[in-house]
Amino acid sequence: MLHVDFSMSRLMGPTAKLLVVVLASATAYTEAQSPANRAAPPPPPSASTPNSDANTQVLLDRIDELERRLSQLESTAVISQPKVLVKEVRVWVDEDGNQYDHEVPGSREIITYERELAQRRETIEDSIDEKLAEEAKGGVEIGINNVTTLQFAHQTKGDEAVADGHAYGLSAADITFAATSAALNTEFYADLVGIGGSPPEAEIDSLSLINGQTARLSNNQLSVREAWLRTEVAHQKLALSIGRIDVTTHFDRNAAANDETTQFISDALVNNPVLGLGSNGFGTVAEWDPKKSWNFKFGLQQSTDPSNQLGSLADSMFKLAEFEYIARPFGLPEGHYRVWARSDNSGGLGYRDAYGLSLDQKVAQAITLFVRYGNGEVGDIPGKEFFYSGGIEFGAPHTFNPEDFWGVGLAHSDFEEGPSEKIAEVFYNLNLTTHLRSSFMLQYVEESATGEAYILPGARIQVVF
Amino acid sequence: MRNTTKLLGVSLAASLAVLAGPALAQAPAAPHNMANMPPPASGAKVIVSDPTSVVMIVDRDSNDIAFMDIKTKEILGRTFLGNNVNPHMVMMSPDGRYVVTGGQRSNTAYIIDSRTLELVAKIPVGFAPEHLAFSPDGRWYYQGNPEGDSITVIDMQSLKAIKTIEGLHEPLNITFTPDGAKAYIGNYGAHWVGVVDVTRHELIKKINIDTVPGVARLDPAKYLTEIKGIFNATPTPDGRFLYTADGDLGVVGVIDTREDKVVKVIRVGPDPWRLYMSHDGKYGITANNGDSTVSIIDIAKNAVVATYPVGPDLTGINFAAGKAFVISSTTGFLYVFDMSTLKPTGRIKIGNNLFLQTATTDTADQKLYLGSATDNSVYIVDGATEAVERVANVGQFPWGTHIMDSKDNYCH
Fold this sequence. Notes:
Chain A is mainly beta and about 475 residues long. Chain A has helices at about 15-35, 50-75, 125-140; strands at about 85-95, 100, 110-120, 140-150, 155, 165-180, 185-195, 220-235, 240-245, 280-290, 295-300, 315-325, 335-345, 350-365, 365-375, 385-395, 405-415, 420-430, 435-445, 455-465.
């Protein structure tokens, strides 16, 4: 028999302990199989013990013993090392420091920690998986997201322009860092983005971005898109985020038109231009969400042109509030109805206000309608801007593959004292693998300021890890 | 010669079982009142006189089943199963006479006298037994052995294993039809549901829930490293239809039990764990661990009528007081939905640093009994008021709870 001195095991690391246990199990098994240790055959019937019943009983006992040992081998052919669990326990301590597991007169309840040992069915694979999961949980999670877009411009209206027949390519790579403290209900998130290339709006004078990937960010340089700390208080009903934020992450989160990397690429179909946010910046967002059918959000953000040096917060204050309600009108599936209002002084003309609506309503499980509306003063542009957009998104079974989706949308922007823009887009997002998506877009853009119109076919490849 | 004798013996036993099976399957369940039963053969003291009056708690690490009085919330007794057992799921027989559990580590099924709490039988079964079910007449105890890809059939009259049903892939749950003629097996290691003829205890059919998309070939990292198939088949109250969620495919297949064929495939959220049926049978809810959502299915329409975000690591859903309670294991929250409006109504914080498991609902559909593994507790949640009461020291690592005749008896 192999004897392992487990008194040494405290000095061993987990891997060494594991090896010892495996070795011990394997050796025990080998020994059990060896001729010397196999169950000794029952003694031959002796002429002096003719009682065959007694011999049968010996045999049966031996079989029982063998079955017991076999069962033991089967049931312990997993890690036999006890699992150490440290548990949070409530105990009662009196004035003299005596500890009880129940309340006694003069004692007070405290929380302490105790070790427990458990014998679990666990294979080596389970144990390794668990350790890896623990490691990942305690560390910083790093994600990579790269979207490369190719678009072509074909002019259909207006005087011949330079963009006609040109192709545009843009690549945006995000590296994200996320860390969570579950006990403190706190999360840290940072998103570094590098954008390089040339979007169509470099040559097409459009009111909104034709490629929304550069929205509120600087092209051809590395930027911090977001870097914030979020914590939940008040029984986790109130979430507070502070740092460099992108308010569109928190507000106007339309389910069908909110992500330029997988859904519509036109910025007018990703955000509401009347929100009027020039760039991401330092800010804070408070979200009151009791997880009922409504929630309320309020945000403050520094908002200046990204090329400007940032000054006092008061010089560029962007204030935004939103109320969201979840409804099931006419027996339809769920829909999200949002109303928002904002005030912004970053244009240098004092506080200028706007309000808007954003809704997405499922009409069937795989069909979602969306609508946006905005009305108000934006930046330093004279007069008001009116905006509306709408469309529809389809999922499986109206797709080639179960996880594909596609959509059609229209958007219209109109300045009271200025130009207007019409945009139409259709896209199809093809889910190739867990890490790879490809999508195809066809956009139509019409600008009143130049009298030009374009059709822009395009494609995107997204790699996510 | 010995083999021939054995074969004859087995054949005779099987023939008797086949003959006895259908007749017994139709027999009405015995009354729950234990006063009608003869006194315990062992002469031991009766600890539980009414099987419906207790909550059974599976203590995985202390290797016992604890019996808690529903009224007084006191532990009336415990049945220690042995060292290195790791019981996984507990269930009371339909007549209330026995309590059974499978020892995940000991590869053994345990049968407990529900009155005296004595361990009356230990039956070797397949590898790593987890989930189990009784035929409606209580005659057959099917013990699933996911790591052995089999089900052990135990005769509750002789308290002996009479057969092993092979050919399954990680069988996790068993659902009997109300007449006890068939049992449906969810295979987590495949995308089909097995149909077992209960009179012969034989796998007679495989029902494919949905086809794996062709694009799966491009994604071996997802489809060839791990499989998340079918956890269970959830029946409608009349047993006519079964709802089978498939994790990898993100769908629920609806099986007509008369025809044994899929009549509808409903797309839900990613990685649905299983479907939980509301007690009135109007709605089913899937817990989608892929994106931490729930999908509510209208059973009459066989369509998803709402999808809502909840927390991560969903381990179960219970129904009480007209609401659904969704258990988010690692966050310590229960997410609550009003089943008349099908809208969220808030969430209940059970505690911090907890590892919530599964719950059972009392037969009045008013209270939940929720196992909480890391603090060795059961939390009682009042469905109407949403008040929470803790019962501590119920055993080590309570993994699940069970109340006789509850409509929410399940495991994970």
